[in-house]
Amino acid sequence: MKIVFVGAGSMAEAMIKGMKNSSEFKHTDIWVTNKHDHARLDKLSEHYGVKSTYNFSELFDAADLIILAVKPKDAKEALSSVKPFYNRQLLISVLAGLSISFIEQILGHGAIARAMPNTSAMIGESATGLSFNSQLSDSQKAVARSIFSSIGSVTYVEESRLDLVTGLSGSGPAYIYYVVEAMEKAAAELGEDAMPFIIQTLKGAAHMLETSNQSPENLRKAITSEGGTTEAGIAELDCRQVKDAFAACIKEATVHSERLRRQFEQTHSS
Ligand SMILES: NC(=O)C1=CN([C@@H]2O[C@H](COP(=O)(O)OP(=O)(O)OC[C@H]3O[C@@H](n4cnc5c(N)ncnc54)[C@H](O)[C@@H]3O)[C@@H](O)[C@H]2O)C=CC1
Ligand SMILES: O=C(O)[C@@H]1CCC=N1
């Protein structure tokens, strides 16, 4: 199956790396292009064995699947360059804030899917939300699912929920890194030793959430002895309304995804 990435940045690389490690896709069937960064394409070819070209006839010839992975600001130009070669095959966009209907307006009818992965795709641990238009065959739906299950978990969601998925898990790894930055700063006295404690604590907690069948609240309560250290620490978080801050963070990222989509569609509607 010939897979073409239009856009060769961090998200494309994360997906290619994940797909290369999966037995389902042959790296020699993967093609990439970008705007004009030859060196970047050479690096991807060297590292992952994928093919690259700026010759669009060659690129899109007999392509089964096109993955759009450019920044939203470049989407119209990239889609316009795909259009002459688009043959109603499956196209999956991973762009934040670009609707399926906008893509259809440029390309015409075809099998269009939208996905919101995250950069943990690089290690096969993305949490991806996936939506389809009504034109996908069952086998195209299966292909879309298998692409994203090769780089982590995949959940079908209505397109209207993708803004929330973007604010929650698309941007989500950045929120966790932010918390880790704060923990590392707080434990500066441990120096280099702090990070292994933090990483293993995160890994252990994630694994407990995944395997214990317990709610996060119960898991937290099991650590919190009356009059103990955790209670003292959590009281500081409560006092600073950290739960509210996280709720506001996810809400604002979600609303911003909607906002970007509206702005994009207003700017490019003609
Ligand atoms: N980075 C992340 O954590 C996530 C990003 N996304 C989405 O993925 C998309 C790509 O993001 P990144 O990979 O981070 O961006 P990036 O800036 O690293 O890469 C963008 C790529 O698009 C190429 N490009 C620009 N115009 C082009 C054109 N006309 N034709 C062909 N290629 C063109 C650039 O040369 C570059 O290779 C964004 O729309 C973003 O919303 C989605 C989930 C997570
Ligand atoms: O920050 C962004 O706009 C992109 C979308 C999800 C993660 N990064």
From TrEMBL:
GO terms for cellular component: cytoplasm. It is found in: Cytoplasm. It catalyses: L-proline + NADP(+) = (S)-1-pyrroline-5-carboxylate + NADPH + 2 H(+); L-proline + NAD(+) = (S)-1-pyrroline-5-carboxylate + NADH + 2 H(+). Keywords: Amino-acid biosynthesis, Cytoplasm, NADP, Oxidoreductase, Proline biosynthesis. Its EC number is 1.5.1.2. Belongs to the pyrroline-5-carboxylate reductase family. NADP(+) binds at A69, V70, K71, P72. GO terms for molecular function: pyrroline-5-carboxylate reductase activity. It is an enzyme of class 1 (oxidoreductase). This is Pyrroline-5-carboxylate reductase. It comes from the Bacteria.
